[in-house]
Amino acid sequence: MVNAVGLGRSKMSYSYRQFCPVAMAAEVLESRWTLLIIRELCLGSKHFNEIRKGVPKMSPTLLSKRLKELEWHGILKRAESPSGSRKTEYILTQAGNELFDVICAVGSWGKRWIDMRHHLDSAEENLLIWDIRRNLCIESFPLDKAVLQIYIKEVPKKTSNWWFVFDGKQTPDVGYLDPSLDVDLYIETSLSSLTKIWLGESTPSVEQVTGFFELNGSQKLIETFDSWFGSSNFASIPKLAIAS
Questions:
Q1: How confident is the model over 194-209, as pLDDT tens digits?
Q2: Which residues partner with 152 through β-bridges?
């Protein structure tokens, strides 16, 4: 059971002590990582380890604390997985579901107005791969079974290679351990190029010209790449310049 009294006292220490609804909402949402946890829940993550994949730099202890805070505020509830595995699921309540539009608005504003250049080279490859996995357009994938390997240059060796194993399931199995299977499509890219393509700031053809993005393997997968590879939920938001 959540220690409501303890959490309540903890929250009071951060109170703006204003009646304004913006201030009251900020007290709940502005704690570090909170909006990103809600983002993951809005995108369909339900289990603790799924949420962690979306916030890889967050400690498990702090994630557990934030989830308890969100439960105390009525933004999510815990339930036992219907699969019978006894795994806990974190489900958004009506209050939590209403934050979907807030997350979309914040993300759209960030894509439109924030200069991302200094973020491109410091992006996290595992978070990018996780986002790619959940946004793939599986219905447009042209083969029943296939293996995709993405090699990201200039990142730590352990997380430089990623394999996607498509076997007819809704989403492919993804990991950085070699499955020892024949690769149907091999992508060699820089982290910056892959991120720009994913965010809609560039295209595979443009990045191929620069030499930082290469596709090799199945011609069918290459020809249909744009239709199944997908993109960020915010890729269609145009970038605008801030007037000086």
A1: 999 999 999 999 999 9
A2: 189
Q: Which of 175, 179, 172 lies closest to 136 in space, CA to CA?
A: 172
In three-state secondary structure terms, 237 is coil
Instruction: Give me the residue label for tokens 């720009």.
Output: 196
Report residue 20 CA to chain centroid gap. 32
pLDDT band at 7 (very low <50, low <70, confident <90, very high): low
What is the Rg, in whole angstroms, of the alpha carbon atoms belonging to the chain? 20
Q: Among 15-19, 48-52, 218-222, where is mean pLDDT lowest?
A: 15-19
Domain membership of residue 147 as a residue range: 117-228
Residue 170's pLDDT band, with cuts at 50, 70 and 90, is confident
Q: Closest Cα partner for 187 from 227, 210, 153?
A: 153
- The percentage of the chain sitting over the pLDDT mark of 70, rounded to a whole number, equals 90
Side chain identity, residue 69:
E
Q: How many domains does the chain have?
A: 2
Could you tell me the CATH number of the domain that includes residue 77? 1.10.10.10
Rounded CA separation 127/166 (Å): 20
Amino acid at 166: F
CA–CA separation, 203 and 48 (whole Å): 34
Pull the structure tokens for residue 156. 């730590």
Residue 3 has pLDDT above 60, yes or no: no
* Same domain (yes/no): 107, 132: no
